[in-house]
Amino acid sequence: MMIKPDAIEKGHIGSILEKVTSAGFMIKALKLTQLTKRDAIKFYEIHKERPFFDDLIKFMTRGPIVAAILEKDNAVSDFRTLIGSTNPVEAAEGTIRKLYATSVGENAVHGSDSEENALIESKFHFSGREIF
Ligand code: CMP
Q1: Does residue 92 sit in helix, strand or coil?
Q2: Is the pTM of this model over 0.85?
Q3: CA torsion, ordered 89, 104, 23, 17, to nearest 10 deg
Q4: Tell me: the pLDDT tens digits for 67-123?
Q5: Catalytic machinery residues
Q6: Ligand 1 closest atom vs CA 52
């Protein structure tokens, strides 16, 4: 997962991590860091043809993010339920995006969309000795 710059600017790191751990996720790796433009382009490569791509890269590099690796049974699907729809207007009550996201672009958190991508994204953010 990532906590995105909008949520960090508003001081929501603690509240979001509390919701994540209360939902039964174990934190296996955690860091506050800032993506370079090159990092963000690589991370979001699959969206490069989308009209919102440039705004997404500007947004994701404008300030620090928190990256974390989470562990739980059914983690990918349960995390997506916990964060809610990409667009906070459509997100269910009580979800992280309903509570903390600003808009469909500035949507507070990122969650991997598959186990395969979770592994790729974990390796993108963390080296072996940062993972517990
Ligand atoms: P995320 O789950 O990190 O995956 C891709 C990101 O692109 C998404 O969250 C949003 O931040 C952004 N995004 C997706 N759809 C749109 C959209 N319609 N307009 C602007 N940004 C979007």
Answers
A1: coil
A2: yes
A3: -130
A4: 999 999 999 999 999 999 999 999 999 999 999 999 999 999 999 999 999 999 999
A5: 110
A6: 20
